Amino acid sequence: MRLRNPCSKAALSAATVTLTLIFLLLLVGAAASLGDDKHVEDDETCDEGIDPATEGDSDSSIVDFIDPSILEDDELLDDIRSQLVKGKLVVIRNAFQTEFAEYVQSVLLGNDIDWKHKRNNSLQSLPEQFYQSQLTKDIRGVFNSDKTKNFMTKLVGRDCHGSNPDLTFSEFRPGDHTSLNSDVTNEIARSTTMIWDLSSENWSREFGGAFYWGNARIPDGGYFDPMFNTLLLFNPSETTKYMFTPVLRNAVGRRFAVNAKYTSRDDMSYSVKRPIEEMYGDVASYNLLNSREASWIVHVMDPNDAAEPKRRQKLRDLKTSVRDNYPDPIDDTIFIINDREGGQVEQETAVEQMSKANLTSDSSVLDFLDPTILEDETLLDEISQSLQSGNLVVLRRAFKESFAQYAWSAMNTNNTTWRMGGAFPSFVNKSSEELQSVYGVINHAKTAIFLESLSGRACSRPYTEALFWGKGSHNNPHSDYGPSKRKAQRSLGFLWYLTKDWYPGYGGSLVWHGAKKAREAYVHPEWNTVFLFLPTISSSVHTVTYVEERSNGKLQSIVTWCRADEKDSPVANLDQLVKLAKTGDFAKMSLAQANWLAYEMDTTSMAEDSEIKGLVQNVRRYLDAFDNSAYMIE
Prior knowledge:
The protein has 634 residues and is α+β, with helices and mostly antiparallel strands. It has 20 helices and 23 strands. The chain has an 8-stranded mixed β-sheet with strand order 2-3-4-10-5-8-1-23, with helices on one face. Helix 14 (401-411) crosses helix 15 (433-442) and helix 19 packs across helix 20 (610-623). The chain is globular.
């Protein structure tokens, strides 16, 4: 019987007693069979030198409670290890025996859990909040036992015998969420992360609280909605990224998880006596390294300690490669243009003089962008190259201060009214004449020509709207690339943030998931900042973080979507589309253009043209991108 929302404390108590008895019987059976499991023998090389003081306090382990069909399938266990070593997320549905899962859930539903609300209160830090508690003693013993650590070491390919695994319960209530993070810390050599979902069965995906795998190639491939008795596993590295999306205010049910984050042994010593150049002979194998060993290779390991000259060179090569690819991968996916030499800051008198009279039917962004941007041809080339490489471009102090202040006033006049959006940003219900004049500047034909020169994409028929980011509003991970007709035509995103009295701790930050490291993915909103990017199938995935209830300021933005149909310039005809597709430069095509080339173009006259046929297939493969960043076991 699966526990389903007990209707009273008495019902819950009775169910808990029943499940506790089942759990105790399972423990007795597990203790009787301890050491008999033929699939998970102790790893002798990892057992050497274990301090008895670090041994677990239970004779039972997760091996005794994982679904037997998993443990009895050696090929499946090998597949799990292989996928983890490749840096993938492994998702296992119905991972544990039902009786054990229901018992642990009943504990979570009880009144004995000492929940503490974890919340980052610093105005300068990444905001996140959720409820947390330590595992109860009996459950902690199962996840902290030596047998569990032996099993996890063999399963994930990393040592998991550390004495200080992070073992906690967590619950996400309305407004709770986490920031994008990697689970890598400088203080602890974390080996693997296990998140066991024990949410109530009446939880719906519409309530939020999804686990999102930030390494997914396409957004839809990263979402894993809460589901009872689902296990998520991954090996943390600098480049792993995950988050929990905000729980909405209308959520019904309980969003629970058990978190077990294992570490390597505290006394682990590293030496060139081990054949590390063979163990980590290629970049793919670096997923076997935890952060501490990677740091030792880069900063401490001396290749000259090896006796043979050939081996010394291999160790030098390993040191260089790990330095470049593991601890601090070079991240060029966000191009921030901040301190420009000679950037203008106008006097307050100039700001006061700005009015609607300064705007004419011929005004465009070329009249109001900071001149230090427009006059720097090298900078404009760098912006163009970065955009067309699929990166996010960030322009601080983008517009003349007088125009920024004018736009702010236009959004905050009594003649501009808002349609409140709740969990989503609020849209303008009625625009003032002043705000319409700002839209006119951004939507001008000369603006489109300028943006086309930067992006290499058609930027005709722009659509502009103002947004207000109220408390609780956010955007979950998405790419702005189709499938609706309106999104399919999007060729360039132009987001202009205007904010006052705003701190990073208030939320509302843009998170660029293409960043190689989670901590570098955040771009905090600042006054008069423009974000530019090309919507693509995979490179433009981003999030706007949850605006915290404690926020005490104003976060607004003006969003423009330039659009490109299949016949729009600069990609105006079949020859140009074919040329782009041949070079594999799909990022210059909007979804509408790629769809036309792949599925709507008349190929009857090209029946014998194998080159065109191959081209069409390549574009179709691009559009039908398959995400294999996670390994699902149903």
